[in-house]
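retry 2 of 3: previous attempt timed out while embedding molybdenum atom. Reduced batch size to 1 and resubmitted. Inputs unchanged:
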Amino acid sequence: MAHRWKNDLTRNDTTPEGLFFNRRKLLTGVAAGTIAAALPRGAFAAGEDLEPNSWEQITGYCNYYEFGTGKDDPAKYAHMLTTDPWTITIDGMVDNPGDYALSDVLSQMTLEERIYRFRCVEAWSMVVPWNGFELADLLTMAGVQDGAKYVAFETVYRPEEMPGTRFPVIEWPYVEGLRLDEAMHPLTIMATGVYDRPIANQNGAPIRLVVPWKYGFKSIKSVVRITLTHTQPPTTWKKANHREYGFYSNVNPNVDHPRWSQATERRIGDGFFAKRQPTLMFNGYESEVASLYEGMDLKANF
Ligand SMILES: Nc1nc2c(c(=O)[nH]1)N[C@H]1C(S)=C(S)[C@@H](COP(=O)(O)O)O[C@H]1N2
Ligand SMILES: [Mo]
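retry 2 succeeded.
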């Protein structure tokens, strides 16, 4: 199938599945020996020498705060979330607003596998095979009206199934947003699977956003509402700390996070003492997406 986008990553580049699912433990140095034993040889070369916490300090870890901020909380509690049946409300500036059953949506979408770089803001990266469909197809089905400029996303908020929401660590529900042209770009997908399996609850089941040229936190999980708007919508991390997190959140090695450099990254699976690699502009998708930001000051619009 001919693609309207270029992505030269292949199966050989992908992060081994075991590393994807266990990366929080790897990153935080918990039970390093145990995990190393369960992984293919070579995948975890120098792991056993890891100083606990050293990675935590430099990386932080990716997450699903609705299930808690502890390292193991999402894996422990995300099973509490009921993901079937699932309804997505599409509203705002669309011709066909309404509540869409996910099963109906999926029957109309072309599902594909995409192998993408996925980068956490704190300086580590993976290459992950997501399964999903283009967000543009869903928006086209809803009928975007003239004048719509942004797409707002909202995660399900169910306190009884999400123990982390009892604490006001961030404002609930989790929200994110894209400019309409970013949302319509063929690289932007709604993912329903990973490694050819339905997505795990802790990774955002049954459906989450993936924007491969932006940081991980842009990838809002368990989406229940998509709203077309005229004005730039609020985003969770910008609301929590606007000095550190902006609306755009493009992977940009020239703009450091206030507390750490983003000029280099460590690829999960390369080993803890492997040389850091230079971070690629837009996560390696520069030729695909740079034109979206032509003329913009990306230091001001971080
Ligand atoms: N609803 C919701 N979506 C979320 C988060 C969250 O806490 N809640 N965390 C974000 C962050 S910070 C990251 S790095 C990615 C991590 O996704 P993954 O670990 O499943 O790949 O999810 C993002 N989406
Ligand atoms: Mo993150």
